[in-house]
Amino acid sequence: MSNSLDDAEIHRIVQNVVQNVMGSAVHEIVQSNGKKVVAIGADHGGFELKEALKSDITELGFEVSDMGTNSKEPVDYPDFAHAVAQAVSSGKVWRGIMIDGAGIGSCIVANKVPGVRAGMAYDISSANNSREHNDTNVLTLGAGLIGVALAKQIVKVWLTTEFAGGRHTPRVDKIVAVEKKYLK
């Protein structure tokens, strides 16, 4: 009987151990075919915006993992927000984007998943701040609140902005510590 683990599983285990020891200073970089993978999901209200954003994400050099929904038929946003957040938390993807009508509900759901720091962005400044200051790994958008052009700008800024570290690192570490306190 063989207990061998594949390289991806070993990578996830090592990343989890290192992240538990070092905190937010270590960032998971999940790659497929040499590209970082971004999960994207939406409910029926965000479906059209999700479809519009996928090609832009690919053009930025990322691989897209579409978590659904696949139509404008009514669905429940928590199901898709959870799927995106879980993909990020497990290390299957580098970052995640979730789109619903307002972006608020999906942000709440995503933040329930350990290891996820979700932020809703409604303009370029909030997208930049969420990455630079908070090291968010899930972005939520409200399709009913922003247009396609602005959403594309937000996604580009969010995907290309690095965490600033420095004075922000201890603050993000405190967020992680609060999360760990309640995971008992």
Quickly list its features.
single chain; 184 residues; alpha/beta; Ribose 5-phosphate Isomerase B, Chain: A; six-stranded mixed β-sheet; 6 strands; globular
β-strand percent reads 15-25%
How many strand units?
6
Average pLDDT, rounded to a whole number, is 90
Give the CATH H-level superfamily.
Sugar-phosphate isomerase, RpiB/LacA/LacB
Number of helices: 7
Structural class: alpha/beta
Q: How far is the first residue's CA from the last residue's CA?
A: 34 Å
In CATH, the architecture is: 3-Layer(aba) Sandwich
Query: Quaternary state, please?
Result: single chain
Q: Which runs of at least 5 residues are low in confidence (pLDDT < 50)?
A: 21-28
Helix content: 40-55%
Reported by name, the CATH topology is Ribose 5-phosphate Isomerase B, Chain: A
CATH class annotation? Alpha Beta
Largest sheet: 6 strands, mixed
Gross morphology = globular
The domain tally reads: 1
Q: Can you write the helix and strand succession as a string?
A: HEEHEHEHEHEHH
